[in-house]
Design goal:
340 residues, Immunoglobulin-like, 15% helix, single chain, 4 domains, 2 helices, six-stranded mixed β-sheet
Length: 340
């Protein structure tokens, strides 16, 4: 007896349970064919019976039928059609041939009833007024009415967390699976595209559902333009602020630690939108003030040294010229040195 080990049928559809008897001896006669069903927690029960001298018998004649049954004929193709599949049809089925003179032969088939889910995916928008620093849901994927349960994954997951939940489906024995992708709101997430991937036994290949994300996040401020080499009296020094946020900023404000903007003040930029604000000082060097002070003192000392050197040279030259123009003073000086 030949029968497949496993057969799958769609919920509400039709399925054929194949069963064939192969005989090498033509003298063997088939006296009866019986299909039995055994559920996990129950005794085997007859589903269909065929006898050559009688009409076929069916447990549910409106949904079950032999494929090749002929009144008065021998049945070696005992394949059985089950229509309008229900969840309770899922069970182990045994096809049994009663033959003369060799006795009974049988084979078993597992029938799995599956249901193809309906899959949807959409972006989730958290209103700006409800913004928090915690992770927020950005995308939801729902697989409705699947049997067995669908498997849902996200690509990429944006280093977020996935929350899954499950509920009964619209038909008995089916399941609805929901997957919620949550991430920390930032410019790195807003505008990105993710894909919900649904895998199920009823699908030849996974169902891929793209989702474009819209994430509200507070301003991210960056100030550039300061290169660490500004000096006192420099002209045309400027700072540039770049702001990224969703929604767009509602106002901008520049301030300084001194309370007013000047070329030597430390500027602080503040920006805000509907979900919050951010302020950012320009990039500074902690040693730049000390560096300029040391440089200034060095220049002053060097200038004073040069002035002193020039003064000394001038006095020395003036003294020599005086002696040259007064020879008797020079002679007296030499005589005085010899006496000593």
């Amino acid at each position: 007896v030949h029968a497949p080990a496993q057969v799958r049928g769609l919920l509400g559809g039709n399925v054929t349970l194949q069963c064939h008897l192969q005989l090498l001896d033509s003298s063997v006669q088939v006296t009866q064919v019986t299909w039995m069903r055994r559920q996990p927690a129950g005794q085997p029960s007859s589903v269909a019976v065929y006898h050559p001298s009688r009409s076929p018998w069916y447990l549910d004649p409106e949904r079950v039928e032999f494929v090749a049954a002929m009144s008065g004929g021998e049945l070696r193709n005992a394949s059985l059609v089950v229509s309008q599949l229900r969840v309770e049809d899922e069970a182990n089925y045994t096809c049994q041939f009663a033959t003369f003179p060799h006795g009974s032969r049988s084979a078993s088939t597992r029938l799995d009833v599956i249901a193809q889910p309906q899959n949807t995916a959409e972006a989730q928008k958290v209103p700006p007024g409800l913004f928090t620093s915690e992770s927020v849901p950005v995308a939801r994927c729902v697989s409705t009415g699947g049997r067995p349960r669908a498997r849902i994954t996200w690509s990429p997951d944006l280093d977020g967390k996935v929350n899954k939940s499950e509920a009964p489906g619209p038909l008995p024995g089916t399941f609805t699976v929901t997957s919620l992708l949550t991430v920390a709101p930032s410019s790195q997430v807003d505008g990105k595209s993710v894909t919900c991937i649904v895998e199920h036994e009823s699908l030849e290949e996974p169902d891929s559902l793209p989702v474009n994300l819209t994430v509200y996040y507070p301003p991210e401020v960056n100030i550039s333009g300061y290169d660490g080499s500004w000096y006192l009296g420099q002209s045309k020094a400027s700072l540039t602020c770049d702001v990224r946020s969703n929604p767009a900023p509602t106002h901008y404000h520049w301030s300084t630690v001194a309370g007013s903007l000047s070329c030597v003040s430390l500027s602080i930029f503040n920006s805000a939108n509907a979900v919050g604000g951010d302020q950012r000082p320009p990039p500074t060097s902690s040693d730049s003030g000390m560096f300029y002070m040391i440089l200034f003192l060095t220049v002053v000392i060097l200038v004073l040294f040069l002035l002193g050197l020039l003064l000394y040279c001038w006095k020395f030259r003036s003294a020599r010229e005086f002696l040259l123009w007064n020879p008797h003073l020079s002679a007296m000086n030499e005589h005085h040195q010899r006496c000593h």
